[in-house]
Amino acid sequence: MKIRFLLLIVLLFLFTFLLTGCLIIDINIGIDGNFTSFLSYKIELDVSDIDPQYHIVLSSALNRLGWHYQQELDFNVGLNTDTTLYVLTMTKRVQNNNFMQAFESLKEMLTNEEMTAFMMVDMSLQSLPRQELFHIAAMLDIPQIISLTSSDELSPELLFEFEEAVRTGTGTVSLTLPVSEVIENSHSFNTQRYLAEMKVPLNYTDQTEFEFTGSLIFMEDGTIGTSYDDISQQLLDRRNIALIVCACAAVIFLLTIIAIFVRR
């Protein structure tokens, strides 16, 4: 598999020159409540304990990475190197008209070798009347990417130190999706207003995997709901119909009584 994920170039710069410092990588992927697909990377590096002579190297490496994602891949990029905490954010958002389009847009981003961090992505969508059943599974293998990136560029001694330094890295992969019902999930998640967010710890020494299966139910007016909402609406509609029928029956009965008195 061809790897074009340039975050590892930054890792190579960082640990080759420094072999110290605190690195955090957060990856955010998903679809929001407005059916906007997004892929976002955030890199934080604490340089407070790093020799100032290397600051320009780090700043240049992060700037190069941000420039590539902005100019070549149309990401919105922000870089802050004014303090002892260097922060690079790179985000791509795609607006869509519906969940089906959003799901396909997200799949395209996560499988694009120019921008993705994932070695494997499996996404499927089944459309039913007023319901979308979806499944997403992905795997990120940082050790494999490191071996492909650095094996020919570092001496065995430096490669050993580099791999040891990688073990101190931290971060998360966050998956956000609109959902009416969660059917299956591989990690803990939180839901709020029909949005489910699952956070997966990023593993620098082994594979990072996650899986999520859910359904999205649409009400008659096109808004997102749940099966309970749908049943409640059906019961409400039936109650309203029953009230209308009873009212009509009462009116007919009243008119019948009035007609009898009029005839007398």
Structural overview:
The protein has 264 residues and is an alpha+beta fold. The chain folds into two domains: 7-224, no CATH class; 227-263. 37% of the residues lie in helices and 36% in strands. The strands form two sheets. A seven-stranded mixed β-sheet has the order 3-4-2-1-7-10-9. Strands 5, 6, 8, 11 and 12 form a five-stranded antiparallel β-sheet that branches. A hairpin with a 5-residue loop joins strand 11 and strand 12 (224-225). The termini are far apart.
* Poorly predicted parts: 231-238
Helix content: 25-40%
Write out the strand line-up for the largest beta sheet, numbering strands in chain order.
3-4-2-1-7-10-9
User: Strand percentage, roughly?
Assistant: 35-45%
> How would a textbook summarize the main sheet?
7 strands, mixed
**Outline:** elongated
Structural class based on helices, strands and sheet pairing: alpha+beta
Rg measurement, Å: 27 Å
Count of separate structural domains: 2
Number of helices: 6
H and E string? HEEHEEHEEHHEEEEEEH
State the separation between the terminal residues, measured CA to CA. Answer: 95 Å
Tell me, rounded to a whole number, the average pLDDT. 79
The beta-strand count equals 12
